[in-house]
Amino acid sequence: MGAETFSSPEKAFAVAALASGARVDGRRPPDGRRVAITLSPTTPGAATASFGATVATASVSVRATPPRAGRPTEGTLAVSVSPSPAASDAAAAAALARRPASGGAATSDAVRLVEGALRGSRALDTEALCIVAGSLVWAVTVDVTVLADAGNAGDVATAAAVAAVLGARRPDVSVRGGVATIHTPEEREGVPLPVAHVPFAVTYALFADPGGGGGGGGGGGGGPLVAVDPTAQEEAAADGTLSVTMNAHGEVCGLVKSGGLAVPPAVVVACASAAGERVLTLTRAAQRAVDAAAAGAAAAVAGSGGGSVARTKVRPVAAHPLAATRPVLVDRQQPLPSRGGGRGGGNAAAATGGTS
């Protein structure tokens, strides 16, 4: 849950609005906020993502290191997520009190989502990060900073982290006789990280339906009210959240449920089905970011007069892992649960609508 506070009348108003098919910020329950993803054309592994007013930036660093004990042929992945002092009122208060701006449960949830997307789903192939078995591997570190938290920081942090990994480069390396030679960027162009697929997280805020006993997940209400991409106030007012990590092929890579609200399996299926459309929006935004960064890098090289031979080599966008992605949504003909009551605007079935 977010650090924002919500009074009882405000929560009652938000829930009533959801039940009627509206939200306090003017969106419909199935509508996400506007997505923007950018990659730096000059700094590989630097990315920024925003959903509405929520903004996060990520950077990726890669270094050669001995492998972990018991994992002689696998590289490592480390993830950190931290809020900027200006990200929220809670972070600002922590900065003024000279306390670490940990972000509490919200940051823990964000770390769990980012790690689930990159490590849990095996989006980053750690075995392909091996340089010399038992001797040397690549250690990848992803640092995410939430610059502004207006809700759903976990999804935004995941988008920024995934984009940063897509744009990151490791040094090229030559191995002869079991001895590795790591080349500088001036000698050889960097190599993209081994990305197997491109997952994103989609989070839903869950509210007990006051009209039908939705707090138990069943009864006459048919399930909780659902709102995708919640704002900070909606997070504070929600009785629970459900995060679906999915790639553009419609493959569910992970599910994270928080809060004490019971959720019927049919609602989980409906949310996972609807997440495909949001993931497609994010995938397209990431593709545009990859294309723009490649074009910007090429323009920078051309403007500098070419530079070294290594710097004039621009890897074709078509060869990038993201460019090979063929977005295929889950079966949109799958029957979805219906409350059948007439107030369907904010329930699980409404989660199957479009995203912005």
TrEMBL record:
Which GO biological-process labels does this protein carry?
exonucleolytic trimming to generate mature 3'-end of 5.8S rRNA from tricistronic rRNA transcript (SSU-rRNA, 5.8S rRNA, LSU-rRNA); nuclear mRNA surveillance; nuclear polyadenylation-dependent rRNA catabolic process; rRNA catabolic process; TRAMP-dependent tRNA surveillance pathway; U1 snRNA 3'-end processing; U4 snRNA 3'-end processing; U5 snRNA 3'-end processing
Query: Which GO molecular function entries does the Swiss-Prot or TrEMBL record give?
Result: mRNA 3'-UTR AU-rich region binding
Q: SUPFAM superfamilies, alphabetically?
A: Ribonuclease PH domain 2-like, Ribosomal protein S5 domain 2-like
Which InterPro entries does UniProt cross-reference here? Answer: ExoRNase_PH_dom1, ExoRNase_PH_dom2, ExoRNase_PH_dom2_sf, Exosome_comp_Rrp42_subfam, PNPase/RNase_PH_dom_sf, Ribosomal_Su5_D2-typ_SF
> Keywords for this entry?
Cytoplasm
User: Residue ranges of the Exoribonuclease phosphorolytic domain?
Assistant: 33-171, 198-275
Region ranges (Disordered): 63-82, 325-356
One Pfam family this sequence matches: RNase_PH_C
- Any idea where this protein resides? Cytoplasm; Nucleus
The superkingdom listed in its UniProt entry is: Eukaryota
A GO cellular component annotation here is: nuclear exosome (RNase complex)
Entry's family note: Belongs to the RNase PH family.
Q: What is this protein called?
A: Uncharacterized protein
Query: Which species expresses this protein natively?
Result: Porphyra umbilicalis
* Lineage, highest ranks first: Eukaryota, Rhodophyta, Bangiophyceae, Bangiales, Bangiaceae
